[in-house]
Amino acid sequence: MSRARPILLPLACAILALMVGMWLGGHPRVLPDGVRTAFVEDDRALRAEVIDQIDNDFIREVDVDKLQDASLKGMIASLGDRFSHYFSPKEALQFQQSVEGRFEGVGLRIEEVPRGLEIVSVFEGSPAQRAGIRQGAIITDVNGESIAGQSSEIATAKIKGPPGTSVRLTVSEPRAKPRTITVKRERISVPTVESKLETVGGKKLGVVELLTFSSGAHGELRAAIDKLLAQGAQGLVLDLRGNGGGLLREAVLVSSIFVEDGNVVSTDGRNRGRQTYPAEGDALDPKLPVVVLVDGGSASASEIVAGALRDRKRATLVGEKTFGKGVFQEVEPLSNGGALDLTVGRYYLPSGENIGTKGIVPKTKARDNPRTPRDEALPVALRALASEVR
Questions:
Q1: Burial environment of residue 44 by CB neighbours within 10 A (0 to 12, 13 to 18, 19 or more)
Q2: Contacts of 19 (CB under 8 A, 6+ apart)
Q3: Quick one: which of 165, 175, 289, 369 has the most CB atoms within 10 Å?
Q4: Could you give the CA distance from residue 154 to residue 95 in angstroms, rounded to a whole number?
Q5: 193-386: CATH homologous superfamily?
Q6: Is 158 a catalytic residue?
Q7: Residue 365 catalytic?
């Protein structure tokens, strides 16, 4: 026994040191600055070593920048969160352009589905429309590469590109063989608001479709609404179908068009305290009837607006269950020109509900048939609105 103790003690210490080292490797923030820097430098050196080895010895020549990007994308993918992404410098620029309401592409509004990207609508006069691409079709491949399972941000980044260049899209439509179409890209100005005046049962009703929550969207929406009211609109349908969201600030300002004061949405996160965003600005007459039209493509900022107007008893919801995105992201620029789009918290409706994957279920059901050119849901919303106009 006396000989075993000197052997077991160092062995136990070695095992303990290994366990502590493994724990510290996963929790580097608890390390002193100098030690943490050494750990980080070692990690960078290891990654550089792997990339150099591939660059020098792999059977095929490789793009080192793509290896670096793949390494970072893999790190974010390991989080298991479909809404968190690493954007390469090129993708970061395209993401910023889409938020600002401009980009270079083919003119489609899309929704992420398991097979690829489903086309929600085709912009009037766009390259996609001229190429015969129709609503309801699914893009499965871009330039011969499958986009199944990829995030909509990454998949659309592959479709976008400089004006004058071309992209090959493989499109699948119901009861038809997949076809590959070559489309020339153009500079696209994304429409923010489309509006029209309808008459139902002798009542004038305004329809405003908000297509994106990009910067300044609330101002364009308010201008369109004021124009409809000047034309005699007695109620409004706010159409948020297929609107996948955008800026949280715009969601608050759009809600503020209809809600005079009080809570619109609250947020919190692991390293962020609870924040409440109240309505602000001059709202419409609270007696003006409002219907919000939604579907499964209505997500994020669209759900904030629909949920706020529902909870504050300001509007009736019509349509299908919304997407159910109860979390929000922040985009942080990186030193290489790329960006990290990271889920940092959850948001809560005025009722305190976090919709998570549940979505918001409208009071009145209405569904579009993607196989027909007709708009089946809007007439339902107009009838519901007309019944509220006195």
A1: exposed
A2: none
A3: 289
A4: 9
A5: 2-enoyl-CoA Hydratase; Chain A, domain 1 (3.90.226.10)
A6: no
A7: no
Out of 88, 298, 325, 341, which one is annotated catalytic? 325
User: What digits encode the pLDDT tens for the residues 59-116?
Assistant: 888 888 888 888 888 888 889 888 888 888 877 876 776 555 556 789 988 888 889 9
Catalytic residue from among 69, 239, 295, 311: 311
Task: Say what the pTM is.
Answer: 0.75
For the four alpha carbons of 128, 174, 380 and 325, in that order, the dihedral sign comes to: negative
**Amino acid letter, residue 232:** G
Identify the three-state secondary structure at position 65.
helix
Angle of CA points 126, 129, 134, to nearest 5°: 140
User: CB under 8 Å, gap of 24 or more: what pairs does 25-32 form?
Assistant: none
Is 311 one of the annotated active-site residues of the chain?
A: yes
C-alpha distances out from residue 22 to 77, 258, 346, Å: 22, 54, 31
Ramachandran area for residue 86 (φ above 0: left; ψ -120 to 50: alpha; else beta): beta
Task: Give the architecture-level CATH label for domain 102-189.
Answer: Roll (2.30)
The DSSP output letter for 10 is H
Q: What is the tens place of the pLDDT at every residue in 130-185?
A: 999 988 899 999 999 999 877 777 788 889 888 999 999 999 988 889 999 999 99
Q: Which 8-state DSSP code applies to residue 213?
A: B
Active site residue: 152, 214, 298, 300, which one?
Answer: 300
- CATH 3.90.226.10 domain residues, the chain: 193-386
